Amino acid sequence: SMRDILKKLPGFGGMGSDLKVDDKEISRMEAIVLSMTKKERANPSIIDTSRRRRIAKGCGAATSDVSGLVKSFTQMRDMMKGMAGMGLRDRMRFSSQMSQMAAAGQMPSIRGKAGTTSKRRVNTKDKRKARKRKRK
Fold it and tell me: By the 8 A CB rule, do 28 and 62 touch?
């Protein structure tokens, strides 16, 4: 599971059962990423509003979920680039701060807005069927 993988990362190993990983959220992230083209995966900065809509439609997520994932990825990428320039002592300090934040539940969520859930988009065929049922 994802919890087992995170335990092996520096800074997360000592957290044990305190680590909270929502496997459903990981599945949503995977669906969003799989709805992207290879170019979008390689360069998320090209994802504009119309691409976000297409990605969201392709995976059944809200556009805010796609935006949240792209934003989280960008933040993590920038943070990792910053860590690359740190010395060993600074990295160890940063790693312990990250594990404390994760234990306190202060790590950012993947979703764009806290507490939002992905809603399945209803296609036109389903809308027509619902209207017919409503008329009867």
Answer: no
Judge whether 64 and 112 are in contact, CB under 8 Å. Answer: yes
pTM over 0.70, yes/no: no
pLDDT at 112: 47
Nearest-angstrom CA–CA distance, 91 and 82: 10
Task: Report, as an integer, the average pLDDT of 24-37.
Answer: 92
User: What is the DSSP annotation of 33-99?
Assistant: HHTS-HHHHH-GGG--HHHHHHHHHHHT--HHHHHHHHHHHHHHHHHHHHHHTS-HHHHHHHHHHHH
d(CA 47, CA 41): 9
Q: Which two tokens stand for residue 87?
A: 């010395």
Q: Residue 19's domain spans which residues?
A: 2-135
Domain total of the chain: 1
